[in-house]
Amino acid sequence: MHVSRKFKRIKVEIRTPIAKPCNGQISSGKINNLLLIGNGGEDEKGGKKYLVKGLRGLLNHSMMEIAQQKGVEICHSSSKEKTKSGESLLPEGFHTNGACYPENECIRHRLMGSINKRSVLRFKPVIVVAENGKGKATGGQKVHIATENRSSLMKETKKGIQDFGDRYIAGKFTLVIELLREITREELGFVLKSILYFPEMGFGGGVSNGAGDVILENLTLQEVVRTRTIGRRGKIIEEEKEKNLWKEMEEGLAAW
Questions:
Q1: For the packed helices 55-70 and 185-196, what is the interaxial angle rounded to 10 degrees?
Q2: Alpha helices in the chain (DSSP H)
Q3: Residue 86 confidence (pLDDT)
């Protein structure tokens, strides 16, 4: 006996020479850190594991750029129209996130959703480990991880008043986005072209200082059948069969 699920997914192979997908300061307040999800203890071989954040936001903002270029009104990432002083937060061609739902739902909301509706795109977590870590890395993609230690100095005395650090990654990783329902060719093309726009956006923090370069190396649409069953002594066995959908990708790109 087994259970199975048939679905489609988008795989994006990305390389970055340097990026800072930080998660804010750690408890000491001195390092803008990656989100630590595994400390490399006895049950977690291969060193510390970190979650790379910001990829969903990158797609969100790429969608906004692609739609604006075509003159299509979509949701803005903000749910607020104005600041406290009354200044508009919405550029021309956008409405607040979710304001279009359900009467006149825009293409971005159909895909990404909001607080009022679940997204049809499921972002699988991108977990990374240091490529030079001790032991065999398991459960993560190998990248270079480094910390730049920095200091703030007083103008007159040059005395250090604050020590802090920024953590960077460099290397290749793969982003996987599962489709929770069938989407139209237009919707598919919108997603694919938004991904193609990633290199123009920059990723994570420090973009204006040279970090955040995104180099796309491969982009694939796949049909997947995932099967799960119980083996000997209760061991769970999971298998995947995948098929690349090149023609459907071409049709999607042509539809947007």
A1: 110
A2: 55-70, 107-112, 185-196, 198-201, 246-255
A3: 78
How many domains does the chain fold into? 1
State pTM to two decimals: 0.87
Quickly count: other Cβ atoms within 10 Å of residue 17's Cβ: 14
What pLDDT, on the 0 to 100 scale, is given for residue 26?
45
Tell me the DSSP string of 32-90: E--EEEE---TTSTTS-EEE---HHHHHHHHHHHHHHHHT--EE-S-S-SB-TTS-B--
For 4, counting Cβ atoms within 10 Å of its Cβ (0-12 exposed, 13-18 middle, 19+ buried), the class is: exposed
Q: What is the DSSP letter of 199?
A: H
Cα separation, 33 vs 25, in Å, equals: 6
Q: What is the dihedral of CA 150, 54, 200, 195, to 10 degrees?
A: 160
> What CA–CA distance (Å, rounded) separates 250 from 221?
10
Look up the domain containing 75 and give its range. Answer: 2-255
Closest Cα partner for 6 from 207, 178, 216? 178
Q: Which amino acid is at 139?
A: G
- Residue 27 token pair: 């408890």
Strand partners, 174: 13
Residue 62 pLDDT more than 80? yes
Question: What are the backbone angles phi and psi of residue 168, rounded to the nearest 5°?
Answer: -120, 155
Q: Region 241-255: what's the mean pLDDT?
A: 98
